[in-house]
Amino acid sequence: MGNPLLDISAVVDDDFLQKYDIKLNNAILAEDKHLPMYEEMTSKSNVEYIAGGATQNLIKVAQWMLQIPGATSFIGCIGKDKFGEEMKKDSKNAGVNVQYYEDESTPTGTCAVCVAGGERSLVANLSAANSYKFEHLRKPENWALGASPAFPFLVCIFFEKAKYFYIAGFFLTVSPDSIQLVAEHAAANNKVFTMNLSAPFICEFFKDAQEKVLPYMDYVFGNETEARTFSKVHGWETDDVEEIALKISQWPKASGTYKRITVITQGADPVVVAEDGKVKKFPVILLPKENLLTQPEKEMHLLEDLCHSWFKGSPLMSV
């Protein structure tokens, strides 16, 4: 469950970049001046449409690993428009069971991927992705009778079948009640529930919502900046990433089925993993400059490796 964005990717020229004041090797949120660019990009002969957004990308990778149609599901909000139709088509072609809430009043969230000279720039317009409604989880066609300690009358079909749940922290800004519903279901049914810290502003300005769901997290992901912000807002008075990772892993849990594992990336520095009162560090393999990834891409690949480990039944320390 997360924020779906349709990636609109096309090769553009310098005139296009100057027209919309876009700098290469950058990622920004769209302003009013950027809004016409999405329609203009659709007219380019080399345009590609890809169902994206960090959480949906991860689910598509998990689906590719499993090679079983419909083995994964994704829930989020799109608009009832042509971009929404492209989103549904691409996701279904990837084999993902998508259950989008369609908002008729807001356009589908998009991300312009402007490619020039082997470099790219991202301009995201969240739009409908910000409009997901908790009530969508309660729609009769999405639910079935079941027996669950957390939900004595209703159990979502997709949640009932799922064994692992992943939600990005960004979704705390959209529908924290939906996250709480999934988290409580996972705890009541001995399933794995995972989230990431996503961004410093999530830790700072959505502290209460994050704290409410943290006891249900079996895995917590983040980077060093997010971890230090988390420490600061909780008054821990330490910038030591290993100590912070350990403290997060020891935060009280709602269920004793799994011990919490905290994974903190640090760019080119070793990845910090806190588990069962111990901290381990894993070195990062340095890549040539032309193959370097952005921080979000690094975290995404780490999550992909973890998914692969789960599917094989391997312990985390072998990832």
TrEMBL record:
Span of domain Carbohydrate kinase PfkB: 17-291
Record-listed E.C. numbers: 2.7.1.20
Q: Which InterPro entries match?
A: Adenokinase, PfkB_dom, Ribokinase-like
Transmembrane residue ranges? none
Its recorded reaction(s) are:
adenosine + ATP = AMP + ADP + H(+)
Protein's pathway: Purine metabolism; AMP biosynthesis via salvage pathway; AMP from adenosine: step 1/1
Q: Which GO terms describe its biological process?
A: adenosine salvage; AMP salvage; purine nucleobase metabolic process
* GO CC annotation: cytosol; nucleus
Give the required cofactors.
Answer: Mg(2+)
Q: Record's family?
A: Belongs to the carbohydrate kinase PfkB family.
What name appears for this protein in its UniProt entry? Adenosine kinase
